[in-house]
Amino acid sequence: MTAGVFITGTDTGIGKTMVSCALLHALRARGLRAVGMKPVASGCERTDAGWRNDDALRLLAASDPQPDYDLVNPYALPDPTAPEIAAAAVGVSVQLAPLQAAFAALRAQADFVLVEGLGGWASPITASLDHADLARAFELPVLLVVGLRLGCINHARLSERAIRGDGLPLLGWVANAVDPQFAHVEETMAILDRVLTAPRLGRLGHGVDATLHSSDLGDAARMADFRQGGGAGSIG
Questions:
Q1: Which of 117, 134, 151 is at the close of a domain?
Q2: Residue 41, Cβ neighbours under 10 Å: how many?
Q3: What range defines the domain where residue 128 resides?
Q4: 145 CB-contact burial (10 Å; exposed 0-12 / middle 13-18 / buried 19+)
Q5: Of 134, 157, 176, which residue constitutes the final position of a domain?
Q6: Out of 25, 28, 38, 58, which one is annotated catalytic?
Q7: Is 38 within a domain?
Q8: Environment class of 5 (CB within 10 Å of its CB; exposed 0-12, middle 13-18, buried 19+)
Q9: Residue 99 to residues 95, 104, 135, 159, 226: CA-CA distances in angstroms?
């Protein structure tokens, strides 16, 4: 079975897409065919080709091969709000089956499929579908992106507990410097290293180029290599 990972975060706006793109480049540098997926995206713009989401387009650009957009982002919702609200605004019912079909199509053409969630782990996708349901249906372990800013220690600990409480394997976490004014980065990193039980697998600076800094996620890419060799479910 194709390897993959589910990318979640401590909150919205903490750089999941930047980390996802950097990891895609890191995986490709290791000789893997790696593609990204954004199953549901809100905040899309109307184009001649249809509704398009910037995060999904960035994932597509970082992928090789580059699948059809509709596979990368099956549900593209216009309003930049919670997906449940955005879907209701346009009369769309987000269903698991089309998401599973799109994931299967991506899996058939790649060595590694990276799936990026919406907002934080506990943010519902629909009234009956959570991130845990998606990760479980896709049989993927989770990688947590921690946005380095005030409050992130609490958010990171709660997110880790929630992921493990939902019965999902947590590969580790990646630190992302989202706030250039945050004055206590190193001290915060030391605390996170101490209080989180999952290993830190990488760190990205503020506003870095995902292509140029993919090597900063080398540990995460090596974990992906290991998982590819061991098959789905080999990390627990």
A1: 134
A2: 25
A3: 27-134
A4: buried
A5: 134
A6: 38
A7: yes
A8: buried
A9: 7, 9, 11, 24, 26
**Tens digits of per-residue pLDDT, 167-206?**
999 999 999 988 989 989 999 999 999 999 999 998 887 6
Q: Is 38 a catalytic residue?
A: yes
The burial class, CB within 10 Å (0-12 / 13-18 / 19+), for 232 is middle
Whether residue 88 lies inside any domain: the answer is: yes
* pLDDT tens figures, 5-56: 999 999 988 999 999 999 999 899 889 999 999 999 999 999 999 999 999 9
Cis geometry, peptide bond prior to residue 67 (ω within 30 degrees of 0): no
Structural domain contains residue 48: yes
As for how many domains the chain has, the answer is 2
129: which DSSP letter?
B
Confidence band of 143 (pLDDT split at 50, 70, 90)? very high
Residue 45's H or E segment, with its range, is strand 45-47
In a domain, 141, yes or no: no
Q: Assign residue 105 the CATH number of its domain.
A: 3.40.50.300
DSSP state of 199: P
Q: Are 144 and 9 in contact (CB under 8 A)?
A: yes
Note whether 33 and 130 are same-domain residues. Answer: yes
Q: How far is CA 217 from the centre of its chain?
A: 14
